[in-house]
Amino acid sequence: MAATTVPIPFEVYRFDPAKDKAPRYDRVTLDLAPHTPVLTALLKIRTNTDPSLTLRYSCRSAICGSCAMVINSKSRLACQTQVGAEFAKHGKIVVEPMRNQPVVRDLVVDQQPFWNNYRKIEPHLKLDPTQPMPVGKENPMTPAEVERFKETPRCIACAACYSACPAVEADPAFPGPMALAKLYRFVVDPRDKDTKNRLVRIQPDGLWLCLRCHLCTEACPKDVQPSERIRDLKELAIAAAGTSEAGSRHAVAFKENIGEAGVLNEFKLVRQTYGTMEMLKQVPQGMKIARKKPELIKKPHPIEGVEEVKAIYRALDTESEDR
Amino acid sequence: MKFAYYPGCVAQESGRELDMATRWVCRHLGIELVDFPKFSCCGSGFIDEANSVLNVALNARNLAIAEGAGLDLMTVCSTCQGMLSLANRRLEEAPVKAKVDSVLAPLGIHYAGKTKVTHLLSILTEQVGADALKKRVVRPLTGLKVGAFYGCHLLRPQAEMHSESAEEPHSFEDLISAIGATPVMYRGRVMCCGFPILFVKEPTANRIAARQIDDAKAHGADAMATPCPLCHISLDSFQNKAEHEAGHELNMPVFHLPQLVGLALGASAEELGLPRHLVSTDAALAKVAQVAVPT
Which of A68, A301, A304, B271 is deepest in the core (most CB within 10 A)? Predict the structure, then answer.
């Protein structure tokens, strides 16, 4: 017996940059069973209403990663999103192309920026050039070694994370969540011999632009957890390359700052991150804020029991520096 | 209702107006706050980046302090909420727990994992409740359109937050409605304020803040409100820089969550520390005062 259908209104983004001055939204209402994937609904529209609707798809099974788009303002796979739940939450289904990539036509975007960023991280194993792998031999890893990057191979390169990322949106320098998650995979691969260089190269105007907002992890249809892997990458980057960048300098300065009084010394943090000379540039804004908020430039009292905090640092922090 | 009050660094320092408003609102609603001068900083996400186990240990100590007093912990900052919740989650990993316990035990600190960490927003919406709150309103903020700005760490990662949907949250909007104002829905409400990279690449951070403010404005917001003092720094203290990046005026008053509630419960602007903001809240206040006069 066929499932009961309900009328579901769609608003579908349409734009052909060659012909249209501005995008428009086509409104179509379809009678659909609640479990129908949004992709199936779009294909029905294309078949029954408008054969010019342009979209990218292939497997219809959340494996190929082709049909990522923005559905009710969230970046996700159209084949994996069912119409019933979306209709229940929003009363309609608005379908738009992915963000942070230029629209080619309708729901198809130019993924070149996404792939360029992926290429930049050199997503292949770099073995020791002086010791070529003997032909016909394996290069095995232990299960524990594989465990370290068990999430990243699930990635289907759908670019939903890239579309959801506010750092990508605000700054073209940021390589995006997927590229960094993939980089992590090679950095912790024991067979890769370029780990340190990889960690050095990714830092200037790259790794440290991550906002740790976790929007990538939320968007990812395969639970790759890019945000968590980027966090791991930051800790590894500090261990490998110290505090050469503003981002690593700030993270380490913050850690040291708290180690002194247990509570943040805001003024000192600015100096620790920028250095005395660079801090001078911050003086006008600092003064502007301190006029309203004089505590900004006051030294806070250490917390009660600051000795406990110092003991925790002695036990755990030297260890990380020695690693 | 009684909580171990975890104000976090900013609310005790440059964001002291948040602490003032929190204490006023809690006093008014009969929520007892217990201070613990032993609390340390939560690490603000930065210590987690530099040394994740140290970050868990520092917060395990904080959680143990509340546990020792038999109290659950109340935060007023999305990032504190996120970091303390992260510590509770990471302590479920046996190797992390063993390591942290081995460092804390010689200091006489034992954390059994019982401390629940709850943000003031959830306490107001789930424990006090919108209906009870509504009854206490003496100055309904009728006519004021407010864009809620959640702050990332209050919502994500979803697995650590155990509460409402990270993708479609509504508690803040429910609260805004309960105090008589009109919530404004916009995509930026669940996005990032830019703060984490304010010290890494300031113009990018400012552009991100500008984007969210513009978004709220485009959807008709007279003001924004946030449960996170770090978002407040980005959206208010650096709004002039965001304006510079946006290339146009923003002029968006940004309230701390308890300031907005306090206003509806009858607190004065001074009691809530509103004059401490960089962007004047006067226009928003005028709107409220105008409609609040009983006829």
Answer: A68
Architecture of the A6-108 domain = Roll (3.10)
Does residue B292 surpass a pLDDT of 60? no
Alpha helices (H) in chain A, listed in sequence order: 38-48, 83-90, 112-120, 143-147, 160-164, 166-170, 177-187, 195-201, 215-219, 226-241, 246-261, 266-279, 283-292, 306-322
ipTM for the whole predicted complex goes beyond 0.90: yes
Which residues in chain B are closer than 8 Å to A217, comparing Cβ atoms? Answer: 156-157
**pLDDT at residue A322 in the model:** 42
Cis peptide leading into residue A175 (ω within 30°):
no
Å between B179 CA and nearest CA of chain A: 24
pLDDT in tens, B1-18: 999 999 999 999 999 999
* Residues near B263 by beta carbon (within 8 Å), at least 6 away in sequence: B139, B141, B179, B255, B269, B272, B285, B288
Please, are residues A94 and A148 in contact by the beta-carbon 8 Å criterion?
A: no
pTM above 0.90, yes or no: yes
Q: How far apart are CA A263 and CA A250, in angstroms?
A: 16
Provide mean pLDDT across the span B110-124. Answer: 96
Interface test with A, best of B6, B65, B97, B204 (most A CBs within 10 A): B204
For chain A, which residues make up each domain, given as ranges?
6-108, 112-132+145-241, 246-322
Q: Are A228 and B23 in contact (CB under 8 A)?
A: no
The answer to whether the CB atoms of B200 and A247 lie below 8 A apart is yes
Select from B49, B102, B245 the residue whose CB has the most chain A CBs within 10 Å, as the one to mutate to test that interface. B49
Fold agreement between A6-108 and A112-132+145-241: no
Q: Per-residue DSSP letters for A86-124?
A: HHHHHSSEEEEPPSSS-EEETTEE--HHHHHHHHHT--S
Contacts of A312 in chain B (CB under 8 A): 54, 57-58, 61, 103-104, 107
CB within 8 Å: A211 and B194:
yes
| Interface touch A255/B37, C-beta < 8 Å | no
Q: Is the Cβ–Cβ distance between B173 and B185 less than 8 Å?
A: yes
Flag whether pLDDT at A246 surpasses 50: yes
For A112-132+145-241, CATH gives 1.10.1060.10
State the best of A203, A258, A270 to mutate against chain B, taking most chain B CBs within 10 Å: A258
Would you say A178 and A252 are in contact if contact means Cβ atoms under 8 Å apart?
no
Q: What is the pLDDT of residues B39-61, one digit of tens each?
A: 999 999 999 999 999 999 999 99
| Cross-chain CB nearest to A231 (options B12, B48, B104) | B48
Structure tokens that stand for B270 in this block: 């001074």
Name the residue among A277, A270, A308, A162 with its Cα closest to residue A221. A162
Closest to B53 in 3D by CA, of B20, B86, B21, B79: B86
